[in-house]
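Example record

Each entry pairs one chain with its bound ligand, magnesium ion.
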Amino acid sequence: MPAVKPEFGAQARQPISVLHGVGPAIARKLHERGIDTLQDLWLQLPVAFEDRTQIVTLDALQLGQTAQIEVRVAAVERGFRFRPMLKVTVQDESLRQLGLRFFHYSSSQASQFQVGRLLRCYGQVRLGANSFEMVHPSYRFITEDQAGVCRDRLDPVYSNIDGIGAATLGKLVRQSLQHLPPEADLELIPEALLRDSGLPGFGAALTAIHEPLPGTTLAELRTGRHPAMQRLALEELLAHHLSLRKQRLAVKAKAARRIDPPASTLEPFLAGLPYRLTAAQQRVIDDIRGDLRSGQPMLRLVQGDVGSGKTVVAALAALSTIRAGGQAALMAPTELLAEQHARTFMDWFAPLGIDTVFLAGKQTAAVRRQNLQCIADGAGMVIGTHALMQDHVQYRQLDLVMVDEQHRFGVDQRLSLRDKGEFEAHSPHQLILTATPIPRTLAMSAYADLDVSVIDELPPGRTPVQTVALANSRRDEVIARIRDYCGQGNQIYWVCTLIDESEDIQAQSAQAAFDLIAGCLPGIEVALLHSKVPPAEKSRIMRDFKDNRIQVLVATTVIEVGVDVPNASVMVIENAERLGLAQLHQLRGRVGRGSTASHCLLMYQAPLSAMARERIEVMRQTDNGFLIAEKDLELRGPGELLGTRQTGDTGYRIADLSRDASLLPEVLRLAERLMQRYPEQSDLLVARWIGSAARFAHA
Ligand code: ADP
Ligand code: MG
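Structure tokens for the complex follow.
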């Protein structure tokens, strides 16, 4: 196996200050964006490309097209109607005319436009008052002998960095590329492993993207199909995968408390449950107990569809830990869910003599102080939102960290809770729960640091939820049905959806729905829940709903995850067309938890887009979370599935999991070989793409 030469990558690691024009001020700005070395600049790929390889004649222009034209000034008009405006009418040999419009310009700029002068413009074609126009196109005047001569390749466009313009960054990148060493000093994927893929080397790929060769098309680059893009995406996915695998190794190298209570310790708890565990739950618990007794930190993801009974699995893991003298913490993504869990665990654990502490964001100082004290004194079970991992929360002996609905958190949050239980060579056990069933390859890349157990069976006696779709115009009919359902003793969720609106507006719209529904249903107890309802009131409403003192709960999507009220059997979702499949599935999962037949009414605003129609159709046809997730992946890409929707950032520079999913099997294969046979290369790959900031550095 070829060892990496010590000087390997020396060129790549040179500081950007070796470039002309990089003084301390620019170096600082680039540093803030994580750009310190030449290699960091190489990896600043263009954000777009402009096609100036051809001239489009005015008669061939299409509305909306971005194009290069070569024209002569035909007339100039300076107007001041509402604000200063320069309008230049231009014309080409096709004798068509087009307007160039500028709202900001200097008078010297204006005076350059003399009738008859020849210029090149590049911009987007819009519809003007009586002809096509371009607003603020980029342009330059050319001489007669430059006429008709075009560039032979696409122009890369770079991003703006605070205080550094795109053009300046582009120049720096071009300059850095002059220092690109030969492939032998760049390539980290051993040739033997890459040979069959037909993809170019790393350096060749970089050059091909920064300086596209003649003949490279915009489409190839935009869709990522260009071999150079594929090559870099492959390498990036590989680096991320390796980084997760290394994190895993680093954690597994630590010791963890051996937790192995005799089965009889769990019996009083199991005997108190009103049901028997399903075979799937039992299997997953066996996996967990195996991890807990191994002496190495558990790193396990439990995947189970909505309603499959993950909470009780978490409780059993906690109970084992607490009986062994440690503490267990459970983190939930919303306060509502955390509080529900707190209540469930208190009911379960109090009879066993175990203290459960609920740490909420909005508790009074006195309550909070008392809770913190209990945690420091070693209360067995601690439940809360991300408040659990704040600095001032000190645990006595945190041995098990559990995260519910992991897809709602970033990876960072999970890791910082783990840090709470870490000391020297010890790490707590980690159990991650998620309802999001993700396709296998995607799971292997996103959760490469975790072992996975699946609860692939629902508790017995559930009847599938009947789903129907109704246009908003049939709201009266829906309300009449609600009245009937209530008459039969059912409880109902009515969910108002407004996406991307402020919490205030969401609350207002829920309030309006509440007023209407409550007005139409005299004698029926209707309550309203949204994020602006004070916490104490929220708790009261949830308790009353759970105890069937409220029949209809009008709510925003605050109830989306985790809420468990088995007697609720009808879910109405307003404007269902605005929600993605994952969200619809989660919401619908709030019903169908008891033995009564449940219904889901999806209301929508007509006309439906093709995509929305398809989503609603999928919801009507299946309640299998796995099928729904696959459909979601197909329709929308993996952001939703992997929980990156919240952060809006997948952490990738080039790769795009939905576009590049086909690379994943190759990524897994390469990772295996590299880890085994080329450890140095894999370290360097991680450093190249993720850098010294990588979490694994202090895992
Ligand atoms: P999720 O996996 O969505 O978190 P929960 O843990 O909230 O599911 O459980 C859903 C419902 O199923 C709860 O009402 C719970 O009491 C019930 N449940 C869990 N396990 C079983 C079981 N083995 N048999 C019957 N009901 C169960
Ligand atoms: Mg749950």
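The first helix runs from residue 24 to 32.
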